[in-house]
Amino acid sequence: MAEDTQEVPQLALVAVIGFNGHVFSGLKVHPDKEHLIYPLGCTVIIKSLKSGRQTFLHGHTNNVSCISVSKSGRYIASGQVTFMGFKADVIIWDYEKKEIYARLMLHKARVEDLSFSPNDKYLVSLGGQDDGSGTLRVWELDLPNRKIRPTECQTGQLKRIVKCLEIPDDDNYFYCGTTSGDILKVNLKTRLLNSCGPVKQKFSKGVNTLKVLKTGDILVGSGDGMLSLCSGGNFKTIKSVQLEGGVTSVTLRGDGQQFYVGTEAAQIYNLGYTDFKPELIATNHNSAVKDVAFPFATSELFATCSQNDIRVWHTETSKELLRITVPNITCNALGFVQDGRSIFSAWNDGKIRVFTPESGKLRLIIHNAHSMGVTAIAATNDCKRIVSGGGEGQVRVWEIFQNSYRLIETMKEHKATVNCIKIKSNDKECVTASSDGACIIWDLVRFVRNQMVLSNTLFSVVCYHPEEFQIITSGTDRKIGYWEVYDGSAIRELEGSLSGAINGMHISEDGKYFVTGGDDKLLKLWHYSDGEVTHVGIGHSGSITNVRICPNSRYIVSTSADGAILRWRYPQTS
Asked: Where are this protein's WD repeats (predicted)?
């Protein structure tokens, strides 16, 4: 068994859709003005602003918590979070070589922020919050004695928790954004608060980020998603714009004629100083992605679903083509009807919703499809029926018309959630995988059970081999089972993972290979007949929730619990 991933060739990561929008100051423009740098999980991504091509810096063992770029652009520094009591690494990267220059291991639990000195000689790192006292200190470097000496800033009776700092080029004052929504202006030499006290204008849900422009004006990003351009003299708002999600990062391109803004909703915007109009340049789900699906026989686009929405993506460019929003409800599963005219979807409010893929218009809704949420769904190849599974364990078959539907049959054998449904190519049989430890092969003509496969696991996924004589299953026991469709007998069992449940599985169209992903965060490509891992994909920071090989076998798309979507090059296999 090729379980040891060290010995196995790695899958090439082509593109990542995602951005850790909650990371403060997580977005940076490189001094060359051509590249955007930002974190996704434990990866640092360098994205070309011209071509959109991404480069990935792998080295952290947990989520990246902060990023800094040196003034010359020669170095990138990134810090991470880890568990209490464990070392949290700071990595300095060589920008040209795109490799680790140095690894610093002094902090524990979390690196809060990083900053390079203007001459590239020093890097200052700030550890995680030890106390909530909200003290403000200026530190002097005593280089001969290798010491740094602090001086407390005198804020009098004023008590504030500071979220961000910004020092203009003249070094006379510095500005502090606070959780209370006001801005403090402190004299850098006297360490005294500006005589007028905190700036009177309050920013809703706190000031998360500040940037001083060459003009002296200040960009203020607040927790309510408002980006404001304020006058440096009196802090009056000159312009403002509402964005989706609280603003967490603002970074300038060049002198600030253009800037990029990151938000908690995993959105990245590009704005110009003069027009101040936001252009959305990157977006993603900001909670767990539940499912991924390609239309029949085409790899041009694919759909994913999550809490609040379904999104359709262009495969090659990773651009969002369509967003279908259903607020405060989670879409558990989705697929394209074979004729390409509909997207069918399963939701946790117990409804099945059918949309048109071009406009996202709601075509049909089946109310009360399942009493404990719709958890799995599939459509027949003749485009006339939908088979659904629910949290209560029922499997239901629906006939779908132009604007209406009819419940044909309810099959009640499962005792727990139905997690996956696959339909045979002739539409006369389907297989369902459930948390009750059973996979049932159903007759879709007589609506009776043909066979049942039992195992000591919560089955999460099942696939027909393209020849349809066998099925493969997986779930919480980390095993991959091969079974005979005819009589339900076990053929073989593989150790799918050493450390976590398998949540997603998909077989290539020729049946020679299949791919799995799960809680160990590894994407694995297997040879079907040999039962050996041929390639492994390392890049996810959260549990992999689902995987798909695209119809032309050029790419594998994997989704994860942290909202990321990764596209891998499908290897040239013999």
From this structure: 282-323, 367-400, 411-444, 495-536, 537-574
Per-residue tokens: 459: 């089955």
Would you state the structure tokens that stand for residue 1, as one six-digit string? 């068994």
CB crowding 373-394: b at 16 or more within 10 Å, else e: bbbbbbbbeebebbbbbbbbbb
Give the tokens for residue 217.
Answer: 């004006």
Show the 3-state SS of 310-364: EEEEECCCCCEEEEEEEEEEEEEEEEECCCCCCEEEEECCCCEEEECCCCCCEEE
Scan for tokens 């394209």, then name that residue.
336
Taking CA atoms, 232 is separated from 175, 237, 508, in Å, by 11, 10, 59
Q: What is the C-alpha separation between 113 and 26, in angstroms, rounded?
A: 10
**Residues 176-223: tens digit of each pLDDT:** 888 888 888 888 888 887 755 455 668 899 999 999 998 889 999 999
Q: What is the pLDDT of residues 281-332, one digit of tens each?
A: 889 998 999 999 999 999 999 999 999 999 999 999 999 999 999 999 999 9
Q: What's the token pair of residue 209?
A: 């980020």
| Contact between residue 267 and residue 21 where contact means Cβ atoms under 8 Å apart | yes
Per DSSP, 6 falls in state: G
CA 168 to each of CA 151, 251, 261, 561: distance values in angstroms, whole numbers, following the listed order: 20, 14, 19, 40
Q: Report which DSSP code applies to 414.
A: -
CA distances from 132 to 136, 139, 207, 223 (A): 12, 19, 17, 19
Average pLDDT (474-491) is 95
For residue 95, what are the CA distances in angstroms to 13, 22, 99, 121?
A: 19, 24, 7, 16
CB 477 within 8 A of CB 499: no
As beta bridge partners, residue 471 has: 464, 483
- Residue 254, Cβ neighbours under 10 Å: how many? 11
Q: Which residue has the tokens 């119809």?
A: 551
286 touches 265 (CB < 8 A): yes
C-alpha distances in Å from residue 448, one per residue of 394, 417, 452, 488: 13, 19, 11, 15
DSSP state of 485: T
- Residue 383 tokens read as 């485009």
Instruction: Name residues whose C-beta falls within 8 Å of residue 379's C-beta, 6 or more positions apart in sequence.
Output: 335, 337, 338, 344, 385, 386, 387, 423
Q: How far apart are CA 523 and CA 528, in angstroms?
A: 15
Rg (CA), the chain: 27
Report the pLDDT averaged over residues 325-351: 97
Structure tokens at 79: 């810090």
Instruction: For residues 152-175, give the mean pLDDT.
Output: 84
Please check the confidence at residue 414 and state whether its pLDDT lies above 90: yes
Q: Name 263's bridge partners.
A: 247
- Per-residue tokens: 18: 């995602």
Q: In this structure, are residues 480 and 423 in contact, taking their beta carbons and an 8 Å threshold? A: no
C-alpha span between 303 and 310 (Å, rounded): 7
Amino acid (one-letter) located at 337:
V
Q: What is the pairing mode between strands 111-116 and 123-127? A: antiparallel
Does the CA dihedral 472-476-477-479 come out positive or negative?
positive
Give 224's pLDDT tier (boundaries 50, 70, 90). very high
